[in-house]
Amino acid sequence: MVFAAPNDALARAEGVLDADPSPLHASVAHQVIGIWQRDWGDMRIALYHLRRARDLAARADSADREADVLAALGVALVHAGRTQQGLAALERGVERGSGHTRARVLFRRAYARWVLGQHREALEDVRRAIPVLRQMDDVIWTARALTLRATVHLALGAMDRADADFTAAEALWDTTGQEHDKADAVESRGLAAFRSGDIPAALRLLDEAEERYAKLGTPTFMLNIRRCEVLMAAGLAPEALAEADAAIGVLDGIGGQSTRKAELLLAAARAARLAGDAHTAIARADMAVRLFAGQRRSWWETHARLVLIEARVAAGRSSGRLVADTAAVAERLASFGAPAAPEASLLAGRMALALGWRADAERHLRDAARSRHSGPPLARMTGWAAQALRARAAGSGRGVVEACRRGLDVLDAHRMTLGASELRARASAQGAELAALAQQASLDSGSPRRLLVWSERWRATALSTPPTRPPADPALQSDLTAFREIAARAEEARSEARPVPALEREQRRLEREIRSRTLHLRGETPGDGYRFDPGRLLERLDEDGVRLVELAVLDGRVQVLLCGQGRVRRYEAGLLADAETEAEHVQAGLRRLAHPGAEGRLAVVEAAGRRLEELLLGPAAAHLGEGPVVIVPPARLHRVPWALLPSLRERVLSVSPSASSWLRARETEAPAGGRQVLVRGPGLATGGAEVPHLAGRYGGAVVLEHAEARVPRVLEELDGAALAHIAAHGTFRADSPLFSSLRMADGPIVVHDFERLDRSPYRIILSCCDTARFASVGADELLGLVTALLPLGTAGVVACTAPVNDAAVVPLMLALHKGLSEGLSLAEALRDARAALPSDALHQATGWAFSAFGAA
């Protein structure tokens, strides 16, 4: 009953003990309390009750009762870190038990051995237990044994065997009322989905398991560990670190299992390393190594040693001793049959190469490269990275490029299983090394065109196809509506200086719900097989008389690829770090210039613009020609106000996340009908003063303002529009970019709302602060409002990269629409609008803060 209705079982057991039971019945009651405390409470209390149960079983003179209690006690001792005592108790239980009871004890010993990482021994025990359990028609214990065997198979990488056992166990669980075991089965299926590379299914199943556990009131730290694994694979390492640390705090607070604490420390170490926090990773991994060693868990200790070495390398440490240690870890992992062995061999090979140890590097890389043809996507990518490094060491540029291509093909296939744009963007980080190797090989070959191809290969890939839309998900719709209402109430409370903590907590809860549901979405298609064609790009550029400038970054330096006149030319510019610093200075200057009285800053900002041009364009600035220019910057330069650069200030200028994205936008056709939509949100200093003027310019336009500017109505009208102008307060969320928003009458409209459109407007003008701000994630990806619109059918956007003066925006917008009504593109109209503004610092800064994105 303790795994069917845990809290009821606990109460019943305490009731038995209150009724002066016989030694036999008292033994059962103490065992139930001990199991409850072992799995969900204090290990010291658990051990007290299980020892009492053992002593009472001996007094009852029941060998099977004593064997059963010894098995439960043995598992508890293992979880408490007392491995030798635990295994001894389990051995004694096997000796004392017979028939059916002995099979159950063998199952528990198999479980303990799985916890210890003794996978082959665990398989042997469960192999002996299952036939007896089946013969006794013991459905519950047979299902448990099958679930355990499947989990051990997963640890050894035997996916097909695990799947067969999970399927058989699930059929048995459906016939029982064991709710905790059923939740555990759902959790195990989530682990299986993750191991097979299906991250959305893994997240969905783990969330479902958590809901089931919550109904039973039974926390499970194994679920936290598994979710951390999935979050890390999804590129959400900071969230995994927060979850692991929070679970450690809860576990310490209740005096819970020492084994789970060690595993959580290992998860935290991995997450910290992936999040770029090497020192935290070292601290957590070192603690995990010591705990695992004390628990005599060699399999786990070896994995923790690998993470500790990886963290030390990330912190800048490298030596021959570290190479030897890594090679020893790789060898040990391989002896365990652990899927992490290639990762360790790759690290050893990489370090050996850096030290010039060619023979050692070749041996380690060859071992790692064996994983490239089989296993889950990330293991195959590890193999292809090793193969690329082998080719580079052998001086084969062609071999490097081929290995990188094959590895990134694996990543592409994996990424297209992800329905959420956030996960697609973050997944690209896993191909960073492959892309960098291919780019360097292209640079070494002296072919700018080849460097362009590889720069495009991994740039803005999340934008290549629209995210999966969940139009028929009523729960998501309900959560979005509730979020909007709570956010509006919180905003109102802030404006009236009323306390908002309760509203903010509910808003954060709803954000987690919405984000969780979107992360569960699976990609609908395997992709369109699109491959960037530089010849097609050059033809289109020449047709339009446009020059495209793509900035690639290799070894920290900006490489300028100037495309046009039928060729690609390369120029070397400055250091990326210097350009980022200068861009921050420019942003600070523009913020100051948004307020009257800061005219003295204008010369400083213009001087920074000249320095930015030297750092970002270098010699290429003199070869831009006279026509329009498209800038394709790396993600880390997304906040540069490009119109401030002297050579770009007077020309038709647009920005695009990638050359491929510009091509798609250029070839996107405007919708039939040409509907215009004008939206005016609340709280603007000017009241959105341009909107009434624009309504007069566009006769028949849909105008949504005051109470009509509500999110459902706004979305309905925006869907498929030819032109949309939105005057509203914009808020950028660096912590959660897909909750960046525009304020409407009934609350915020967020990126998640726009992603539900069948087709976003062909052209959108966002006369709001911070609407062109993005979060840089993954390898070279951007998340934000503009990047959400581009894959959904929008060919051109005008948006703002900095805070601006509301009053100065009005004349800029009116001049911009004047150009559009005369047949100009967004980039042409924006250039003319800047020129039409007054020449004072306030208006100049406002013009520089806006950029045209895309090609419409």
UniProtKB/TrEMBL annotation:
Q: Which residues form the CHAT domain?
A: 607-850
Which Pfam family, an example, fits this chain? CHAT
What Gene3D superfamilies does this protein map onto? Tetratricopeptide repeat domain
Designated name of the protein: CHAT domain-containing protein
The record lists the organism as: Streptomyces muensis
